[in-house]
Amino acid sequence: MCQDIRSRSGLTLIELVVVLSILAAVSSILIPVFSGTIQNANQVATTCSLNQIGDAIGDYWRDTKHIPLDGIGSVATETNRFDIDWLFANPVTGDGTFDFSFDTRIGWRGPYLWTSTGDQVAAGSPFMIDAWNRSFSIQDVAPSTQPRDLRIVSAGPDGVVSIPPSTATSALTSTDVGDDLYVALTLR
After folding, report:
1. Torsion angle, CA of 89/95/96/102, rounded to 10 degrees?
2. What percent of the chain has pLDDT over 70?
3. What is the pLDDT of residues 58-100, one digit of tens each?
4. Cα 126 to Cα 128: distance, rounded to the nearest angstrom
5. Is-cis flag, bond preceding 147, omega within 30?
6. What's the confidence (pLDDT) of residue 71?
7. How many distinct structural domains can be found in the chain?
C-alpha cells in the first residue's frame, strides 16, 4: 500500500530557480547582440536613404541650376536653392507641375523622389526621415561659390547634428562628424 515516490510530476523550486537563472544568463548575452544589430540596421537604412536623396539632388541640380530662383517665389531663393520638399514638388509652383524644356534641357522635371518615408498624411506633404524618425537636413556650405559643397545629413542616434554647416566637407574631422551620417555632393 505504499506509493512509489519516483512517480512524481513537476519541478522542484530549486530546479525552477536553476532554469530561470540559465534563461536570464542567455538573455543577458543576446540582448546586446540584438540591440547592436538594430543599430546597424538603422545605419544601413539611413545610408540608403541618404544615397537616394543624394542621387535625386544631383538630378534636380542638373535640371534647375541655370534657373534663377530669386524673386520667383517666397520659398525659392538662390541662397537657399536646396530643399528636400523640392524633390517632390516644383519650387516655383509648389506642386508637381512639370516645367522642363527639352530644347534647352533646363527646368524642373520631377518628382525626383517618388516615395516619402515620413507620415505624409500627418505632415501634409511628403518628406524624408532617417531610421531614428528624424528629418534629414541639407547643408549648403558656401552657397555663393562654385562648385557647390553640399551635404545631406542625418543627426544619427543621438538626434543632434554635430557637423558644423559652414565647414567644408574636405576639412571635416571625426570629431566634427560625431555619430552623424551624411552624403557629400560636389555640384558643378
Report:
1. -90
2. 85
3. 999 999 888 777 655 555 666 778 888 888 888 777 778 888 8
4. 7
5. yes
6. 54
7. 1
The boundaries of the domain holding residue 128 are: 48-187
Supply the mean pLDDT for the chain. 84
Give, in order, the Cα–Cα distances in Å from 84 to each of 15, 36, 110: 60, 30, 12
Separation of alpha carbons 19 and 186, rounded Å: 59
Q: Which amino acid type is present at position 112?
A: Y
In a domain, 8, yes or no: no
* 73 within domain boundaries: yes
CB 139 within 8 A of CB 121: no
d(CA 102, CA 68): 18
CA distance 123 to 35: 30
User: Is 63 domain-assigned?
Assistant: yes
Contacts of 83 (CB under 8 A, 6+ apart): 75, 91, 138
Q: Give whole-number Cα distances, 187 to 43, 73, 108, 143, 147, in Å.
A: 25, 23, 17, 11, 5
CATH number at residue 135: 3.30.700
Residue 104 resides in a domain: yes
- Which tens digits make up the pLDDT trace of 88-140? 888 777 778 888 888 888 888 989 988 877 666 666 667 788 999 999 999 99
Secondary structure of residue 11 in the 3-state scheme: coil
